[in-house]
């Protein structure tokens, strides 16, 4: 790998989210999409026509390409581990769609394989790059809202029944790991943990109220953070017509509220008249999973390129991504056992 050539990227999995990765790779000066890999010969043929690059259906042949530096894994959530193990063994860096996996055992195996293979592992949580969120995080880190007291995440979204019937894995325990919280809610839960710090315990309840799916379409939880603060989480895909996701962070000197990544309230002592960030790149998937654009994915592709060039960790590591998975699985466990779960 020379410093003056774009890094060669490949994509494993050619569903809807792969198009987002392809657009992000194309928009980044430091990356070039060279190949894709799909599950069958027919899907690979379709992918070659769609992405205008060579396509394989044999993973080993795909990973044998010497010009591939990074692979984006866009398979469904419960099938991240196996291609990641093969990619790490082949010495390819990995940029992985959220959530990292559907169980802690599989997530830990994936993280360990990348460490042992000496490859970098980045996980897509693109909402960390929204300007409003970055402004909130900077204010919290600077102590502007004081001691953290409470954080709330609300992902009260809606999905039409066709969202689940169009796919064999969505809403299943094996393929999706659950449903509304682990698939849709995980982005905002990641932001909540990034601000509030690690969770110590959780009590949660999940329900399947509207959709004919194995996982939940409704959930709520109370979180105890290690710093002593409290948190709440609500989420769903049954809440018509779907409201923009909200993140509310409260301290003893004020609070800041985000809606769809945009600051809608800045209640900080001495800064009541501060102008709010008006832009909201990336959009919100409140009622349409594809109502987002590739710009924030592009930011994570650029970060991965820089991490490789500079030999540093990516913006969101496997261990970072494990935290949101552990909390969500804790909510599921709590609901099943009807008791508070220590994390």
CATH topology of the largest domain: Dihydrodipicolinate Reductase, domain 2
* Sheet with most strands: strand arrangement: 13-12-11-7-10-9-8-14
Helix/sheet category? alpha/beta
DSSP helix fraction: 25-40%
* CATH architectural grouping of the largest domain: 2-Layer Sandwich
**Count of helical stretches:** 11
- Summarize the biggest pleated sheet: 8 strands, mixed
Indicate the radius of gyration in whole angstroms. 20 Å
Order of helices and strands: EHEHEHEHEHEHEHHHEEEEEEHHE
Query: Strand percentage, roughly?
Result: 15-25%
Distance between the termini: 41 Å
Which of globular, elongated, flat, extended, rod-shaped describes the shape? globular
Task: Look at the structure and give the mean pLDDT.
Answer: 94
Task: Kindly give the count of domains.
Answer: 2
Low-pLDDT windows of residues: none
CATH structural class of the largest domain: Alpha Beta
Structure description:
The protein has 343 residues and is of the alpha/beta class. It folds into 2 domains: 7-126 and 295-316, NAD(P)-binding Rossmann-like Domain (Rossmann fold); 128-291 and 323-342, Dihydrodipicolinate Reductase, domain 2. Helix content is 36%, strand content 23%. The strands form 2 sheets. Strands 13-12-11-7-10-9-8-14 form an 8-stranded mixed beta sheet. Helix 4 runs parallel beside helix 5 (104-117) and helix 9 (180-196) crosses helix 11. The model has no long low-confidence stretch (mean pLDDT 94).
Give the helices and strands, then pairings.
Blueprint: E1 7-12, H1 16-27, E2 31-37, H2 41-51, E3 55-56, H3 59-63, E4 70-73, H4 81-89, E5 93-96, H5 104-117, E6 121-123, H6 131-141, E7 148-156, H7 161-165, H8 173-176, H9 180-196, E8 199-207, E9 218-225, E10 230-236, E11 246-251, E12 254-259, E13 262-268, H10 295-310, H11 318-337, E14 341-342
Parallel strand pairs: 1-2, 1-4, 2-3, 4-5, 5-6, 7-10
Antiparallel strand pairs: 7-11, 8-9, 8-14, 9-10, 11-12, 12-13
